[in-house]
Amino acid sequence: MIRIIAKLWRLLPYQIRLKVIRLSQPKFTVSVVAIVLNNKNEVLILDHFIRPGSSWGLPGGFIKAGESPTAAIKREIFEETALELTDPELVRIRVVRKHIEMLFFAGGSGNVALKSSEIRDYGWYSKGELPVGMSDTQRKLVLDTLAEMSI
């Protein structure tokens, strides 16, 4: 019976097999975030309008279809702040229920200019003075990553 099913499966056009496989798999959202440092080793934290409960957090956003994670984080940071990322390095991938988050570490060049209606304000913060209103999860993520990077 399994051999018959396997033969039938192989006879199906590739596009149909691909659709069946994708329909049978759980759906995920995927985003990128970055710990962006300036020349004083301060972290860029943005005050987001759309974050419920904790408006201050790391910059980032969702990956577009066909976009690489590195291209996505460069685009997101530029769209939100006008900063160009220097040497983005993927340092961690987190899975939270049906969401995958890729964390990058990078330097930023240029001057911050808030370009997105999603962002209310920004600040550069030392690791000991992260803003009130930042979630405990993101605060821990920043502190743990900076410790791992020996900063």
Task: Provide structural commentary.
It is a single chain. With 151 residues, the chain is an alpha+beta fold. It contains four helices and seven strands; from the N terminus they run ααββββαβββα. It has one domain: Nucleoside Triphosphate Pyrophosphohydrolase, CATH 3.90.79. The chain has helices at 2-11, 14-24, 69-81, 136-148, and strands at 29-37, 43-48, 56-57, 60-62, 84-96, 99-109, 119-125. It has a four-stranded mixed sheet with strand order 4-1-6-5, covered by helices on one side. Strands 3-2-7 form a three-stranded antiparallel sheet, covered by helices on one side. It starts with a helix and ends with a helix.
Question: CATH homologous superfamily, by name?
Answer: Nucleoside Triphosphate Pyrophosphohydrolase
Low-confidence stretches: none
* SSE class: alpha+beta
Query: Could you please say which CATH topology applies here?
Result: Nucleoside Triphosphate Pyrophosphohydrolase
Calculate the mean pLDDT score and round it: 89
- Gross morphology is elongated
Tally of extended strands? 7
How much strand? 25-35%
Query: What is the annotated CATH architecture?
Result: Alpha-Beta Complex
Which H/E pattern describes the elements?
HHEEEEHEEEH
Count of domain modules: 1
Could you give the order of strands across the largest sheet?
4-1-6-5
Major sheet, described briefly? Answer: 4 strands, mixed
Helical residues, percent: 25-40%
CATH class: Alpha Beta
Number of helices: 4
Distance between the termini: 60 Å
Task: Please state the CA-atom Rg, rounded to the nearest Å.
Answer: 20 Å
